[in-house]
Amino acid sequence: MLRRFFQKELIEAGCDEAGRGCLAGPVFAAAVILPEQFRHPLLNDSKQLTEDERYQLRPIIEKKALAWAVAMVDHEEIDRINILNASFKAMHLAVDQLATRPGLLLIDGNRFAPYFGILHQCIVEGDAKFTSIAAASVLAKTYRDDFMVKAHAEYPQYHWCDNKGYGTVAHRNGIKEHGLSPYHRKTFGICKVVNGSLV
């Protein structure tokens, strides 16, 4: 069962990102402040939910949250500052947009770049432990999926409607056949040339 709070003295915002391991597209992050009594039987780490369950939860989270925000850092900036820093930046941008200022950020993972003036706590697999991080994971994932489905309409050869930019066989085969799209992260070593062929 997910825990509601890490502590009770400060307002907490759960933060999570989506798209860190993808070959194409931006990284998205969300920050969510939930009311004290928030519960939903479906809520869990977004990776443990079906696509339908994530989209069922999204409007509930948005309606019930005391504050929520979603932000993104695009593929070009990911290439400039690296994916780890881009993930931190996306979380910072989401926190910037919160209508209520939290006193503590609960961060999914084991590293974070401190946000000036707000304490933070890193929690490994936090999206499976705390409701606010789980809620943030649902928002980040669904908003990123929406972006990649729209990008798929421009570049259907990479099958982003199915893989959302992750390195599936169909995605990699699309790269081999068509090369890189403008959305691909060029610093990710997506493909290399061996004996004149992309692999």
Topology (elements, then pairings):
Elements: E1 12-18, E2 27-33, H1 51-64, E3 67-73, H2 75-81, H3 83-97, E4 104-108, E5 119-123, H4 131-154, H5 160-163, H6 169-178, E6 193-194, E7 197-198
Helix pairs in contact: 1-4, 2-3
- Total beta strands: 7
Within the largest sheet, what's the order of strands?
A: 3-2-1-4-5
Question: Ranges with pLDDT <50 over ≥5 residues?
Answer: none
CATH topology, by name, is Nucleotidyltransferase, domain 5
Any idea what the CATH superfamily is called? Ribonuclease H-like superfamily/Ribonuclease H
As a percent range, the share of helical residues equals: 25-40%
How far is it from the N-terminal to the C-terminal residue, by CA?
43 Å
Which band does the percent of strand residues land in? 15-25%
Cα radius of gyration in angstroms: 17 Å
Q: How would you state the average pLDDT, rounded?
A: 94
Characterize the largest beta sheet: strand count, sense, and whether it forms a barrel: 5 strands, mixed
Q: What would you say this structure looks like, in words?
A:
It contains six helices and seven strands, in the order E-E-H-E-H-H-E-E-H-H-H-E-E. With 199 residues, the protein is of the alpha/beta class. It has one domain: Ribonuclease H-like superfamily/Ribonuclease H (Nucleotidyltransferase, domain 5, 2-Layer Sandwich), CATH 3.30.420. A five-stranded mixed sheet has the order 3-2-1-4-5. The protein has a two-stranded antiparallel sheet with strand order 6-7. Helix 2 packs across helix 3. The termini are far apart.
